[in-house]
Amino acid sequence: MDNLDATFAALADSTRRAILARLAKGEASVTDLAEPFAMSQPAISKHLKVLERAGLISRGRDAQRRPRRLEARPLRDASQWLENYRQFWETQFRRLDALLHDMQTRELNTKKKKTRTSIKEVRNEKQRNVHH
Amino acid sequence: MKNSGTFTIKANGDREIVVTRVFDAPRRLVFDAYTKPELIKQWLIGPDGWSMPICETDLRPGGKYRYVWRNDTDGSEMGMGGIYREVAPPERIVATELFDEAWYPGEAVDTIVLTEQGGKTTLTQTILYDSRETRDAVLKSPMQTGMAASYDRLEKFLPSLGREALSA
Q1: Quick one: pLDDT band at residue B4, thresholds 50, 70, 90?
Q2: Which of A7, A32, B17, B163 is 20 to 30 A from A101 via CA?
């Protein structure tokens, strides 16, 4: 987890994320990678250096092309960690969803039935009848 | 659930973490759920296997609040609390936030803003830490102890990218 900082810093840039998305499809040379961006090769090389330092990409064996390729492990670490975090809060928020639903149902039940404008109200009315 | 997709977490600037989420309810109810102990205890209880034995809120500027969670298996507890700075029902709460055994220095300031449209409420929760180092330490900390971040909806981008890379 020590490298998480570097991973997140490297991923905080849209060009670098686009580069990774391209490399997810297979290795590519610096020229290939520079092509879709309105950027000079040195500018792309700078981004590649950041990604390389973060361990997100490495260089292939072909000495001429020096193709870059994606390294999956740091991404897996980062995504696993985010997934844990996300799941934790999503669990809380889903409980809150359920609570808010109950609160609204209770509110509707205590209201006197004026007009049956909403489907929810009709449903609640039915529920009440079942209980009686 | 349909609102799960509205959940975002971002690191904002140097010192902030921002969480947003949409709820299918008017904001006065969301405000109550965030401020009334009997309601907080029904949802903010941590991962499965945890409960919230203590929840107290003195909801006024200068008033204190205190939360304690307990791991029902091993009995370990975690507490946090702070002071309300602004209380503006049903749209805004500002409060300080400090864990009993804080793993980071300084108090954080938590701002909750609720906006309502068409019966739905958007929650925007901003946590401001005292320094970039603190914020980044929180980002790396384990789940139960705090909040963290994704950059620019990274949570959507990463898992699929990871899979592609693995199958390549």
Answers
A1: low
A2: B17
